[in-house]
Amino acid sequence: VTSTRVDLVLASGVSQSAPENEQVIFTISGNNSATMRPVVIDLKDYIGKDIAVRVVDDETGSTVAAYLKESPWAHITFDHFRFHDARPFFPTELTASEIRVLPPMDPVLHAGLSAADAAKAMTVPKGFTVRLAASEPDVVRPIGFALDDRGRLWVAEAHTYPRRAPEGQGRDRILILEDTNGDGRLDSRKVFIENLNLISGIEVGFGGVWVGAAPYLMFIPIKEGTDSPAGPPQILLDGWGYQDTHEMLNTFTWGPDGWLYGTHGVFTHSNVGKPGTWYSKRQRLNGAIWRYHPTKHIFEVFGEGTSNPWGLDFNDYGHAFTTACVIEHLYHVVQGARYKRQAGKHFNPYAYDDIKTVADHVHWVGRQGPHAGNSRSGSAGGGHAHAGAMIYLGGDTWPREYRESIFMNNIHGSRANTDRLQRKGSGYTATHGPDFLLANDSWSQMLNFRYGPDGGVHAIDWYDKNQCHSSNPDLHQKSLGRIFKINHVNDKWARVDLRKLPSDKLVELQLHRNDWYVRHARRLLQERGPDPAVHAALKRMLRDNPDVTRKLRALWALHVTDGLTEAELLELLKHDSEYIRSWAIYLTVADRNASP
Question: Across-strand partners of 418?
Answer without folding.
Answer: 407
